[in-house]
From TrEMBL:
InterPro entries: GpA_ATPase, GpA_endonuclease, Phage_lambda_GpA-like, TFA_Chaperone
Pfam families cross-referenced by the UniProt entry: GpA_ATPase, GpA_nuclease
Biased composition (Basic residues): 676-692
Domain Terminase large subunit GpA endonuclease span(s) in chain numbering: 344-634
The name this protein goes by in its record: Terminase GpA
Amino acid sequence: MSTSTSPNSASPPRPSADTTRLQRAWRRGLTPPPNLNVVEWAERYRRLSKESSNGGRFIVSRVEVARGPMLAATEPGVRTITLLACTQLLKTTVIENILGRFVHVDPCPMLAVLPKDDAAETFSKDRLAPMIRDTPVLREVFGEAKARDAGATLTHKQFPGGHITLVGANSPTNLAMRPIRLLVCDEIDKYPLSAGGEGPPIDLAEERQAEFKATSLSVRACSPTVAGRSAIEASYEESDQRKAFVACPHCGGWHPLEWEQVRFDKDEDGRIRPETARYECVECERPWTEAQRLIALRRVEWRQTRAFTCCGERQVPEIWEEERHGVRRALCRHCGARALPNEHAGFQVSKLYAPKQTVRETVAKFARALRRGPEALRTFFNTQLARTWKEGADAPEWQDVYARRDEYLSGTVARAALILFAGVDVQKDRLEVGIWAFGRNRERWLVEHRVLPGATNRPEVWADLEAMVEETWPHASGAEMTVRDWGIDSSGFTAEVYAFVRRQAGRPVHAVDGQDSYAGAFLGVGAKDSTAAGRKLRRGLKTVRIGASFAKQELMGCLALHRPPEGKPFPAGFVHLPRDVSEDQVKQLTAEELVTHVTRGRTRREWVPIGGRRNEVLDCANYARGLAAMRGWDRWREPHWRELEAALGIERPRPAADEPVVAPEVAARTLAARNQQRRAVRRSRVNNRPMR
């Protein structure tokens, strides 16, 4: 029996499994990726893991406030996103959805940076792996991971068109290993200041984006920590500072939800009653019910709120354009132009926007934190309000100080200023000189802050300082003023400073030594020259010892004083700044804060820099203050002030014989204020002593 071999009689060959996969991959390659933003992608494809409290389809309206940050990932012009947010609300979800959207729709090399290597592994196992497992499109892109597959390790996962690498911020090698387009940095306040001594981790990672400069995206997320030392706070301040506005159910006005608008009652013992907590509108002051708050959270408008300068005027955003890409851009109220760039989009969100936590629960946490002390209160501010915790209550905000500048210009002396003192801070490549004027009522004026560039181990920069010693400054009366005393910091470059001071013999030029003391601004004079036998020379070089901690605390208290209404006298101790003082100079003047440390049961307070700011202006002010104390500024009486005025050609009318004498005011939180309070207590004790 023969078997037919005719091709017509044989059945067509069935495609193999490899051929089917090849055909499917070919069709998928010819199909363009869907043009979806992060919100559209998440609602269409994302499946929340069973470990989540909301397993199943992702629905952004459950936490409407998350819509804006996700839309910013594809907003035209945005290159950096900052999420300053409370805990357990939107940070991780936003990061996951951004990663998932780019893996599926716009594949590229990605880098996720966590505080440490073990945190990176935890994120991979607890967050990334479940998202891939439960989201079908991602499971198809990554395929089934195999242990022997080098492209699918715990911290490095490859996919067609890119990869995701997860590293710790403490490893400079991993941060600089390969070029990337999408950078995600989570919990950045826990990063080390420097990765292996090579620089800030975020800066090292962002250098890897150079090859994708036109299309790169950097996402930074964290809850804030301590004011001035919080990396997420600094990043948010650099952004356009978007805030979530909601509509009041009563008046319809739009405003962001702020903790200052939360109201509650207290019982007879002064304890907070959380059951009375409610939110009140900032405009109509009517309270909201919890149902009204939840309804208001269904529609959120993100608006730019950073102050800007346009048409020659400093403005706070009051007018915004229509919403596009999830944000309303700020407009100038004069010309109507866009006032702020959107290259860096910043978002701040507190638990007041959380649908699952009521205002009463938030107030209950606040009451509990108050009972437990400062550390618990700090945690409340960081995790619930998404606000930094200010440890140094003595340090005023530099923006407040900058806003109350005077009308006089740098290089001129105001009429009420009667004597000049100068402080010089010595750096390796420059000298910084602060000229300060002092007058009645403990008031002082910044006359000028000048930088003399040049290596301080060379004579040129010292020649510039010597020429400056000969200069004069015009007084408002028309007279020319010279500096009464010059104080040069001798702590860092001792030999150079001592040599310069010796050359200025006969001039009021002193070497100063700042010390950590609260005893006073002027602590005395120390002899430095001695004989071969070690005996101090009476007429040798001497240094002026200055209580730097006292001067800082006094200055911070004085800088916190408010400017009085027009026509009213200035408060005692008021610090005047010229109209053209720069923001950087004011930042330096308020560059340190008093922080309390508890080590082995012992409490220690020290002044620490805020956010790495420079502090040369502050140091110069302290040296000038110490010299003023050395000359007796704190104890001068009216006859001395009249002598100074007479030298400037200022005539001051004498008070009438029957005019009451008003006791001089003293600045709050200064040594004079504390001494005044002690004297009052002593007088009270003497007056109330029973008679024998």
